[in-house]
Design goal:
This protein has 7 helices and 3 strands; from the N terminus they run H-H-E-H-H-E-E-H-H-H. It is mostly helical. InterPro entries: DUF7342, WH_DNA-bd_sf.
């Protein structure tokens, strides 16, 4: 395994310092392993997950097996088996939450705003999508502007991802409302 930590502590995982002690005392083993694995974007051993979750390797494996059955975690290999979060599950959950908590018209308004932002990025970078931006864009740019350009590309990728998720949420919300309308009509 590389020296790079496969668990992203900036967005998920256990807190640091005094908050970590409180986290260890107030959360169950299941909750702590869940907290750790949701930050694992690269395959990670049960031993490392157990260490981060302050539990035994066997305890981590038991929880990870449950999380695999629930679709929250995926794994590779057998000896040793390694685990990471199942990004498809979290994407599905995000789509489901958006569809339940927002109206179709609200979701469409968000899509329209993102489409405008996407178009402004296409104009700014003179490219149809962020992956088509030529490295030449950065050749004759002042050092300070390079960071701004990279931030723009990062934001553009986020806009594209958000558009996909919102469009899926709209489809789901429409399907759910049609199903509810049919159920109400037959009652």
């Amino acid at each position: 395994m590389s020296d790079e930590n496969p668990i992203d502590d900036t967005t998920h995982g256990p807190p640091a310092g005094t908050a970590r002690t409180q986290w260890q005392e107030e959360r169950t083993t299941f909750q702590r392993v869940y907290d750790v694995i949701t930050g694992a974007t690269e395959y990670t051993s049960a031993k490392e997950i157990g260490e981060r979750a302050d539990c035994s390797t066997d305890g981590a494996r038991r929880v990870l097996s449950q999380l695999i059955e629930m679709g929250i975690v995926e794994y590779q290999g057998d000896r040793p088996r390694e685990y990471r979060r199942n990004d498809s599950y979290f994407r599905w959950r995000r789509v489901d939450t958006l569809a339940r908590e927002h109206s179709v018209s609200d979701l469409r308004e968000q899509v329209d705003a993102l489409l405008e932002e996407d178009q402004s990025f296409q104009d700014r970078f003179e490219a149809p999508d962020p992956n088509a931006v030529s490295p030449a864009v950065f050749e004759h740019v002042e050092h300070e502007s390079i960071h701004e350009q990279w931030e723009g590309l990062t934001r553009w990728r986020s806009v594209r991802e958000d558009l996909e998720v919102l469009q899926q949420a709209i489809h789901r919300a429409e399907r759910d409302s049609e199903g509810n309308a049919k159920t109400s009509a037959s009652a």
